[in-house]
Design goal:
The chain is α+β, with helices and mostly antiparallel strands. The chain has 3 domains: 105 residues; 71 residues, Signal transduction histidine kinase, dimerisation/phosphotransfer (DHp) domain (Helix Hairpins), CATH 1.10.287; 147 residues, Heat Shock Protein 90. The protein is built from 9 helices and 7 strands. The strands form 2 sheets. The protein has a 5-stranded mixed β-sheet. Strands 1-3 form a two-stranded antiparallel ribbon. Helix 6 runs parallel beside helix 7 and helix 7 runs antiparallel to helix 9. The longest helix has 55 residues. It is elongated.
Length: 368
């Protein structure tokens, strides 16, 4: 529950407490007033009696003589009874209801939390917290299941390239009479499989780092234009292999207080994603600018339209847009999740949009 949500609730609870306290004081004052009024009335009535003999007269005189003591006793008894009623109703009852609600929060069930009418606002907030807890628990369970499935897939996939590498290297060792062309072919295949094996091992490291470490930023003024130029330059071989070109539409200088190393990983993941899923022969466009408060960067590529249900999950841990294990695009499903975490740690946001065979990732960062 955020501070903004807690403040109105705290105010309503305090208002209800003051109202209850006021009712309690009014009840005590009413009781004291009634007792004193009855005592005065009784004293006046007793004073009007003229007979001098009899048990009733003596008892009335005794009561009149000790009227203050009797009033004090009656007031004290009434105060105890009234206090007990308020404590039992407003304190013990509500505390028991809150204790039951706390147990439901610790062990979330499908049934909603129900509290007395006097705690209606608290009931709404607790049910909202319960829904968030259930949603987070389901998301964590789904993420854990995806991670476990991915680890199983990766472990299975490690065997295939490793077997190929061993097989072709064995052929190269045992067949010294191979022609140079065939030897080169086997060497290229072994190298390709070894690189695939390296990719899979790196995915294991990504999974471990993402789950066991907490990202910490070391911010310093950074020129995002220069950084993106360098990242695109490093990606030229991959883009060329995929038949893609990249166009930068950026201001001459775009300063941002950020952790350059980590933010470059965001750009790296977005460009890698574009190179995997772009239509060959198209252009990847990176545009950016600043309005003085927010720096906006867009990464746009021509690619198959992503359905909305996949867009809603594209930044989830271990979610893979391409679920096929046979393609080199099948990564660990961590790149965009890590990118989102890094951007949000910088106080920014990242979102994905897709329509008419175009995919756009928009990154917003605070300007200096």
């Amino acid at each position: 529950m955020s501070k903004e949500q807690r403040t109105p609730l705290r105010g309503r609870i305090q208002s209800r407490a003051f109202r209850t306290w006021g009712i309690y004081l009014l009840a005590l004052m009413a009781w004291v007033t009634i007792v004193i009024a009855c005592a005065i009335l009784g004293y006046l009535v007793c004073s009007t009696f003229t007979w001098q003999d009899g048990l009733v007269y003596r008892l009335l005189n005794l009561l009149r003589d000790y009227i203050v003591f009797v009033c004090a006793t009656v007031i004290l008894v009434g105060w105890v009874i009234i206090s007990y009623q308020f404590i039992a109703r407003y304190a013990v009852g509500e505390l028991e209801a809150l204790a039951d609600a706390a147990e439901q929060l610790v062990s979330p069930q499908d049934e909603p939390i129900s509290l007395p009418d006097s705690l209606g606002d608290v009931e709404v907030q607790l049910n909202a917290a319960r829904e968030r807890a259930l949603r987070d628990a389901r998301a964590a369970q789904a993420a854990e299941q995806r991670k476990n499935d991915l680890v199983v897939y990766l472990a299975h996939d490690l065997k295939t390239p490793l077997t190929s590498v061993i097989g072709y290297l064995t052929l190269l060792r045992d067949e010294p009479q191979l022609s140079p062309e065939l030897r080169r072919r086997y060497t290229d295949i072994a190298l390709d499989k070894a690189e695939r094996l390296e990719d899979l091992i790196n995915e294991f490291f990504d999974i471990t780092r993402f789950n066991l470490t907490h990202l910490e930023l070391e911010k310093q003024p950074t020129d995002l234009t220069r950084m993106l130029q360098q990242v695109v330059s490093e990606f030229q071989p991959m883009l060329a292999e995929a038949g893609l070109t990249c166009r930068l539409d950026l201001p001459e200088k775009l300063l941002c207080p950020c952790d350059g190393e980590k933010l470059s990983r965001v750009f790296d993941n977005l460009l890698r994603n574009a190179s995997y899923y772009s239509i060959p022969g198209t252009e990847v466009r990176i545009a950016g600018g600043s309005d003085g408060e927010i720096i906006t960067l867009t990464f746009t590529n021509a690619g198959k339209t992503i359905p909305q249900e996949k867009l809603d999950r594209i930044f989830e841990q271990f979610f893979r847009l391409d679920s096929s294990r046979a393609t080199r695009t099948g990564g660990a499903g961590l790149g965009l999740a890590i990118a989102k975490e890094i951007v949000e740690l910088h106080g920014g946001s990242i979102q994905a949009e897709s329509a008419h065979d175009t995919v756009t990732f928009t990154v917003r960062l605070p300007a200096p």
